[in-house]
Design brief:
The complex is a heterodimer of chains A (474) and B (345). Chain A has 474 residues and is of the alpha+beta class. Chain A is built from 16 helices and 18 strands. The N and C termini of chain A lie far apart (148 Å). Chain B is built from eight helices and 23 strands. The chains are: A alpha+beta (474), B alpha+beta (345).
């Protein structure tokens, strides 16, 4: 008899375990099936519909809504099956605080809950009992509320189910949140005028945004089927490859400015930040089009060295070169130089009678003929309105200055034809040779100037070599 | 009756005192009490509302209700609690008992002492609570249907008033209930048929059972413990029956009553896939009728509990009627039952 009692109890225990397992399995299967559809949801509306379907497989309820925490300690519904919930604002009081801390709360009479007491319009319209489930969606606190028009509808069983249910739903919502974040990131990625891309070390793009096509003019297919090295300027390619090599195996970031070829054959300067992610064996590149800035910088650099009208060196550059020559002469005594200080004769009359445009054009044409009078290594500069200088350097005795002066006179002899006018011009040249042992550039220039005035005094189209006698005559 | 703890049985001349403390700052608990008076349902409702107020959770559904009440109308008390909370909150506990069924029981709560009150505790613990509610009996093939119950308060020959309708079973299958029970039980209460009196001890191993539900294909039973023979030849019971109920004569054994408490504790753990080390403490409700039946073997009951719940502090009480929640979710008042309530860590 005792054995059969124990057998009966054992059978009961076995059936209890089976029933418990069966219930859990059914509940788990329903949850998993529902969570699949939650995870597959592409937007909040679809997600909420899927969530409601899952809820119905677990709980018996009439309406459901999700309250989202806002700044200022309030919550507002962001999804609801009932229109009467929309537009409501909820305070976060003791019950909601507990719910958000992870303790689901079932109420058999909502009117006694402080949060619901502030919602008489809703509770009057048929909500009697409710189950509140806290959801943790990243940094955002939310509460899922399911309601019923009957009092005492939700009990301890539902609270336990809610405890199992909440983490799964939170995870699904988090996944959706993440998907939305990825979608938003992709939108920014495509919207950005920063050229962004992910490349392998072979240079081929794994991913790129539309800025590449917009700025460089290639189609998506052309970019997809090309290596980034196809776009880098041949002169810059070596540096680009070297940069990638340096990044290999590191987590560093490097910044370089390179020229990239556009589809029309022109080049644009891109300022590139490149980072390597060793785990992925990929490089992330973000580049800004800095062509305009580079052009301005180059122009400024040019303007600092060259005369804006003639394109010859300006006074500052000339003085720099003259100082270099002086210094070099100190170290290399065999090295000599001379300068020709030139001033156009009667230029003021030409300017006054034919106009400034003609005068400016004349200066440009004179500059071109002066360049023809010298070697490539010589320096020709415009240092004043109609004043030009030539710096000649020699490794041996400076015998060529007077020869160059003669070439200048000869080259300027033919008439210039400017805006329909024939213009004849000559030039006076003062020459300084460094055989007198100068130590500063201004002295050299001063003596050449003195010689030039001596040439002027001799008449037009003359050349005078400086001598100390000129100082005495002054 | 005394009490049981993990340290053993505490009973000297039938007296013993033990206390179980709960420290749960993240949880919330409240106690409410009310005189049962003439309106048990209303008393239970009042008590449960008071308990919720004390817990500062008015209108919230607790994880569990612990009940302790004077015996006699437990079904109505359960009904009153369910009228407030709904029927999906486990109600677990036991009815007050004394040593000789003379009605010397007391209830105390919130600085008050009562003789005929319902005391409820609402539990909102921060950890899981687990429970199991079993009997240690098997059904026999001997059955009969209730054909008549007393519809008014009836005076027992020797025992106390039976206050609740359905607690006096007059006829089974059209025959006087006491005679019929004696026949089914093979002269178990022959002496009391003529003299009346307390039959608790004789009927402890042969109570009446009704199917409370099924687990799979196997029925589980809610027990009624006959406590006396009435003048009209009826049986007074510790729990109510209704006309039409099919009663089975149940069969128990001392061995099974001794081992059952530990098995119920194990069953509670298994139901929640918990291990003893997950348990912070336990409350055990062990029927006073069973306790009287096992007598000196009560130490073995404690040993069985200690084996099932090693190093878990527990408090075991003996009651004249047990309230618990069956696996199907039904809150029931029964007799000769064992309830185990476990508090998770």
């Amino acid at each position: 008899m005792t054995i059969s009692e124990q057998l009966f109890e054992t059978l009961l225990d076995l059936e209890r375990s089976r029933q418990r397992e069966r219930e859990l399995r059914i509940e788990s299967e329903a949850l998993l099936e529902g969570l699949r559809s939650i995870t597959d949801s592409q937007d909040t509306e679809a997600l909420f519909k899927a969530l409601v379907r899952v809820l119905h497989s677990v709980f018996d309820f009439e309406d459901a809504f999700v309250l989202q925490a806002q700044t200022g300690g309030k919550m507002v519904p962001n999804a609801s099956t009932s229109k009467r919930i929309q537009g409501s604002t909820w305070s976060i009081l003791a019950v909601f605080r507990r719910v958000m801390a992870g303790c689901p709360v079932a109420t058999f009479d909502v009117t006694h809950l402080p949060e619901w007491a502030e919602q008489p319009a809703i509770s009057r319209k048929g909500v009697k009992s409710a189950l509140h489930i806290g959801l943790n969606i990243g940094q955002q606190a939310a509460i899922l509320v399911i309601t019923h028009s009957s009092s005492r509808h939700f009990g301890a069983t539902q609270v336990k189910q809610a405890k199992r249910f909440a983490p799964l739903v939170s995870q699904a919502l988090l996944t959706l949140d993440f998907q939305q974040a990825v979608t938003e990131r992709d939108r920014f990625f495509q919207l950005s005028m920063i050229l962004m891309g992910i490349i392998g070390f072979d240079g081929y793009f794994k991913q790129f945004n539309t800025a590449w096509a917009v700025i460089l003019g290639y189609s998506d297919d052309e970019i997809k089927n090309s290596s980034i090295f196809d776009f880098v300027h041949p002169d810059d390619c070596e540096q680009f490859i070297a940069t990638l090599e340096l990044l290999k195996g590191t987590s560093e970031q490097r910044d370089i400015e390179q020229q990239f070829r556009c589809r029309d054959g022109s080049y644009r300067w891109l300022s590139c930040s490149i980072a390597n992610y060793p785990d992925e064996r990929l490089c992330y590149i973000a580049a800004r089009d800095v062509t305009d800035r580079i052009m301005i910088e180059q122009q400024l650099a040019h303007d600092a060295c060259y005369d804006f009208l003639t394109g010859l060196f300006n006074r500052a550059t000339f003085m720099e070169r003259l100082n270099d020559a002086l210094n070099y002469t100190v170290r290399q005594p065999n090295h000599q130089f001379s300068i020709l200080y030139m001033d156009l004769d009667r230029f003021k009359i030409i300017n006054d009678t034919l106009g400034h445009n003609t005068g400016d054009e004349l200066l440009k044409e004179v500059s071109l003929r002066l360049l023809k009078a010298v070697r490539e290594v010589d320096v020709v500069a415009r240092i004043g309105g109609d004043e030009f200088v030539i710096l000649l350097t020699y490794d041996e005795e400076p015998t060529g200055a007077e020869y160059v002066a003669q070439r200048v006179h000869k080259l300027l002899f033919p008439s210039f034809f400017l805006y329909g006018n024939e213009v004849k011009v000559s030039i006076s040249i003062g020459i300084t040779l460094n055989i007198t042992g100068y130590t500063d550039a201004l002295s050299v220039l001063r003596d050449a100037d003195l010689a030039m005035y001596a040439a002027k005094a001799k008449g037009k189209s003359q050349s005078v070599v400086f001598s100390h006698r000129l100082n005495a005559d002054k | 009756m005394g009490v049981m703890t993990q340290a053993g049985v505490h009973s000297e001349d039938g007296r013993g005192l033990a206390m179980l403390g709960i420290y749960d700052p993240q949880g919330s608990y409240g106690v409410g009490a009310a005189e049962i008076g003439a309106a048990p349902c209303a008393a239970a409702e009042f008590a449960i509302h008071s308990a919720l107020e004390m817990a500062e959770r008015p209108s919230e559904v607790p994880a569990m209700v612990w009940i302790m009440a004077a015996p006699g109308c437990e079904e109505l008390l359960i009904s009153g609690i369910e009228d407030v909370l709904g029927n999906d909150v486990p109600i677990i506990g036991g009815s007050s008992a004394d040593n000789d069924l003379s009605g010397q029981w007391k209830q105390f709560a919130n600085d008050e002492i009562y003789s005929n009150a319902v005391v409820v505790t609402v539990l909102f613990p921060s950890t899981e609570v687990m429970f199991a509610f079993h009997s240690g009996y098997k059904p026999t093939d001997v059955k009969g249907s209730v054909t008549k119950i007393a519809e008014f308060e009836a005076k027992d020959k020797k025992v106390d008033d039976a206050k609740t309708e359905g607690r006096i079973l007059l006829e089974i299958d059209g025959q006087p209930a006491a005679n019929f029970y004696n026949y089914l039980g093979k002269d178990l209460i022959s002496d009391e048929l003529t003299h009346g009196g307390n039959i608790m001890a004789q009927t402890t191993l042969r109570p009446l059972g009704r199917v409370a539900g099924h687990i799979g294909m196997i029925p589980y039973y809610q027990l009624s413990h006959p406590k006396g023979v009435t003048e009209s030849g009826g049986l007074s019971l510790f729990s109510s029956v209704a006309v039409g109920d099919e009663l089975s004569l149940m069969h128990g054994s001392i061995d099974n009553l001794v081992s059952r408490a530990g098995r119920v504790a194990t069953s509670a753990l298994e139901m929640y896939a918990a291990k003893p080390q997950d348990i912070a403490g336990a409350l055990i409700v062990y029927c006073a009728g069973c306790r009287l039946a096992v007598q000196d073997r009560l130490d073995e009951v404690v040993e069985g509990l200690c084996v099932a719940l090693p190093e878990v502090p527990f408090l075991g009480i003996h009651t004249f009627g047990e309230q618990g929640c069956f696996l199907g979710g039904e809150n029931r008042h029964g007799n000769l039952m064992i309830s185990v309530l476990l508090f998770g860590k």
